[in-house]
Write a structure and sequence with these properties.
heterotrimer; A alpha+beta; B alpha+beta; C alpha+beta; B: alpha+beta; Ribosomal Protein S5, domain 2; 4-stranded antiparallel sheet; 5 helices; about 25% strand; C: alpha+beta; OB fold (Dihydrolipoamide Acetyltransferase, E2P); Ribosomal Protein S8, Chain: A, domain 1; 5-stranded mixed barrel; 4-stranded mixed sheet; about 30% strand; flat; Rrp40_N_euk (chain C); exonuclease activity (chain C); hydrolase (chain C); KH_dom_type_1_sf (chain C); RNA-binding (chain C)
Chain lengths: ~300, ~260, ~230
């Protein structure tokens, strides 16, 4: 059974709060929920939370024979699982539309944007390459699942290290166990961060509150009649959104994915304003992730004398 | 990802002889399928898409009806013979076709005035017949014309165009050869307001370059819009001619159309 | 009160006892009265010691007769409506179960509107039924459609806490600003106040005080309110 759609009072209240530039959880329009990471014992095992949304990402690598068309490139596959555990909205069995959309977006963000250097995954041309398998499990969905999943995925890729290998002679491969030789981090070209915005139609009359909201941080180029754009929508904000905009950016101000499929039409200026906000946030996330991953690596390191 | 083919030569010509901002030839055929309530076959150069629209009609599956508006149902198929590189048969579960369908559905949901037809369904069938870059662009343009032909009320036209960047030089309407090598963006805009309903990009691009393409695509929208309007007007005129063969002199509606 | 877990056996001297949720009587060859616990929680009993129940916290509502609930109208059905009350099945609300309703003059509820109603029938083999009046007096007694305001979702324990007149939260909020509430036992609370801000504060406080969420006590909530913009 599908959960009931938001009731009329909930909907009305949400929009009247929006008219006064208020969000239900007290955030500013361009404020995201708090995020946190916890690393598992294994390398490449990361649990990420964004507000009440939680995602588990796990990276592992195994040796396989490369595809005949691409003998120098490793393989990467991303698997997503949205089980009914995450939210009552998901049903067991058949892949839901949300699951397909999530898998496609993660595929675009991490695989098609060339995040991972595939040639660096090659061990022996045409014979042996690494196959990276990224498994994403949604543990709880309270909105913003894609953002959380991509952050978890980015963290897992940074955290993961593959065993060191050595090629001896023509086609003999030696895998050094992590206890003997330090495992090698993946060669990543860049790390994209996915940032989601929800858009709502402009207030019927430009209210005084909208002007007040400008101080609280609105997207640049957002005038009083422009649609309202919220960063990191959660719960009711997600379900009542009139348009969604997903942006994946690298900290170097490069867009990896722009996905705005339908929904509320946006003026180019508003879109670019959102891009600038996202670029700033991507930089912040990068700095934060860097520190967290390094902390964990230092903690894990065992000195051998 | 560099190819051996020169994307843009020193004279400023692309591999098929076009200039940077030049669009490929567009053909719109709005009489493509007689059985449908509205249909269109749209070609951008060698990319060709056929779209048929049925409805608003009673929904096949009662459970899918919405009590306050019409539901839009999109089904896309990519013909196995449509491209030279990838001749596989794509079944119903194929992710790429599902995504194409989902994108078209999401693009048209806010544009079609669905609240006029509660509890009914509008079916849109998209067939990709030939691919040479810009499949999404052609599908959206074809769907717009097909919906107009079917008489489905729309808030505005939706005009889509693809843009790409080659070594800091932006270009429009990419062929598949260019699409494979360049970062590209598909933008669908509503020409009346200039607002964007769809922006989709899957390859890495710097924010500043992206802004440039967005601006260019915004300029290309009205051009495509003009072509679409001409086709719709011609079709309306043909219908009127067929209706009132003997009444030509005394038909004020026709005079109005010729006026424009 | 002792914490009990499913499977525990409790014995009592009383001959005639009444069991509430979470307990099941077991037949005992000896003369003693015994019961097993079927839910985790704290074991509660009345002053006389002949009524027992387990107080726990869950999120899924199971209707019991006479409990007030807040429902969302999900569809019209013949003379009445189908209402979502957070249970596994939809409840039905008869069009005539309102104060002053007659065949000619029935209230008009839209799909997705909120109703405050009482469970009039709760049986495991039947769909639950709701009513928006007192069946004896035929007066509304506060039940009916809820207009405006906002719906807050919380755990079942929290909604029972709020119904307890000795619980600190609502008086505390009431001392700051006037507010209307409708409390459903199905983990839904409706709040209405003059300002949007006040409703947001109330909603966030309920979430913060929920034993299933923030779990703040009175002092923590007081501090929390002072950090909010009112």
């Amino acid at each position: 059974m599908r959960p009931p759609s938001p009731s009329i009072p909930e909907k009305d209240f949400f929009f009247s709060a929006l008219d006064q530039a208020l969000r239900l959880d007290g955030r500013d329009f361009l404020e995201a929920r708090p995020h946190s990471l916890s690393f598992g014992a294994e390398l490449g095992h990361v649990e990420c939370s964004l507000g009440k949304t939680r995602v588990l990402a796990q990276v592992d690598a195994k040796m396989v024979r490369p595809e005949p068309q691409r003998p120098f490139e490793g393989l990467i596959s991303i698997h997503c699982e949205l089980s009914p555990m995450a939210s009552t909205e998901y049903e067991p069995g058949r892949q839901s539309d949300e699951e397909i959309a999530l898998a496609r977006m993660l595929d675009k963000i991490f695989r098609r944007s060339d995040t991972i250097d595939r040639e660096a995954l090659c061990i022996l041309a045409g014979e042996r390459v690494w196959h990276l398998r990224i498994a994403i499990h949604a543990l709880a969905d309270a909105g913003g699942l894609l953002d959380c999943a991509s952050l978890a995925c980015a963290a897992a890729l940074r955290h993961f290290r593959r065993p060191d290998v050595e090629v001896v002679g023509a086609n003999e491969v030696i895998v050094h166990p992590p206890a003997l030789r330090a495992p090698v981090p993946l060669a990543l070209h860049h790390t994209p961060y996915c940032i989601t915005f929800a858009c709502y139609r402009a207030a019927p009359e430009p209210s005084a509150a909208a002007a007040k909201g400008a101080g609280a941080g609105t997207v640049a180029g957002q005038t009083e009649t422009a649609p309202r754009v919220l960063l990191d929508p959660a719960g009711l904000e997600h379900r009542l959104a009139q348009g969604m905009l997903h942006l994946a950016l690298t900290p170097q101000r490069e867009l990896a994915v722009v996905h705005k499929a339908g929904g509320l039409p946006l003026a180019p200026g508003v879109l670019m304003g959102a891009v600038q906000v996202a670029a700033r946030r991507a930089r912040e996330l990068e700095a934060w992730l860097d520190v967290r991953v390094r902390e964990d690596w230092v903690r894990k390191k065992v000195e051998v004398r | 990802m560099s190819s051996r083919i020169e994307i843009l030569n020193e004279g400023g010509f692309r591999s098929d002889g076009r200039r940077q901002y030049e669009l490929r030839e567009m053909t719109f055929d709005s009489t493509a399928q007689a059985g449908a309530d509205g249909s269109a076959r749209v070609a951008h150069g060698l990319t060709e898409v056929l779209v048929s629209v049925f409805g608003p009609r009673e929904a096949r599956v009662r459970a899918q009806t919405l009590h306050d508006r019409a539901s839009i149902h999109v089904e896309a198929t990519i013909a196995p013979f449509s491209s030279t590189s990838d001749r596989r048969r794509r079944g119903r579960g194929d992710k790429r076709t599902l995504e194409l369908a989902a994108t078209i559905k999401a693009t048209f949901e806010p544009v079609v005035q669905t609240s006029l037809y509660p509890r009914s369904q509008i079916d849109i069938f998209v067939h990709v017949l030939q691919q040479d870059g810009g499949v999404l662009q052609a599908s959206i343009n074809a769907t717009t014309v097909a919906l107009v032909n079917a008489g489905v009320p729309l808030a505005d036209y939706v005009c889509a165009v693809t843009g790409g960047v080659h070594a800091a030089a932006p270009m429009l309407d990419l062929t598949s050869l260019e699409e494979n090598d360049l970062p590209h963006v598909t933008v669908a805009s509503m020409p009346r307001s200039g607002h964007l309903t769809l922006v989709s990009m899957e390859t890495r691009l710097h924010v500043d370059r992206f802004e440039e393409i967005l601006r260019l695509a915004g300029e290309a929208g009205p051009v495509i819009h003009k072509e679409m309007r001409a086709v719709v007007r011609q079709r309306t005129k043909d219908l009127l001619d067929g209706m009132g063969k003997g009444l030509r002199e005394s038909n004020p509606a026709e005079a109005m159309i010729e006026d424009e | 009160m002792p914490v009990v877990l499913p499977g525990e056996v409790i014995q009592t001297q009383h001959k005639t006892i009444k069991l509430g949720p979470g307990l099941q009587q077991i037949s005992n060859p000896e003369e003693k009265t015994a019961m097993t616990v079927t839910r985790a929680g704290t074991l509660e009993q009345n002053a006389k010691g002949n009524q027992f129940w387990v107080e726990g916290n869950s999120r899924r509502y199971v209707p019991a007769a006479q409990e007030p609930v807040i429902g969302i109208v999900s569809a019209r059905q013949g003379e009445g409506w189908r209402v979502d009350i957070g249970y596994a099945h939809q409840a039905s609300l008869d069009g005539l179960a309102f104060e002053g309703a007659s065949r000619r003059n029935r209230p008009n509820l839209k799909v997705n509107s909120l109703v405050y109603a009482r469970v009039s029938l709760a049986h495991k083999d039947m769909e639950p039924e709701l009513e928006c009046f007192d069946a004896q007096t035929r007066k509304a007694e506060g039940f009916g459609e809820l207009k405006g305001g906002f719906l807050v979702r919380c755990s079942l324990k929290m909604s029972r806490n709020l119904l307890n007149p000795n619980y600190f939260l609502l008086p505390l909020l009431g001392s700051r600003f006037p507010l209307d509430t409708a409390l459903g036992t199905n983990g839904r609370v409706w709040i209405s106040a003059k300002e949007v801000k006040q409703i947001i504060v109330a909603a966030r406080c309920i979430e913060a005080a929920d034993p299933d969420g923030g779990g703040m006590d009175q002092n923590a909530i007081k501090k929390f309110i002072s950090t909010l913009d009112l």
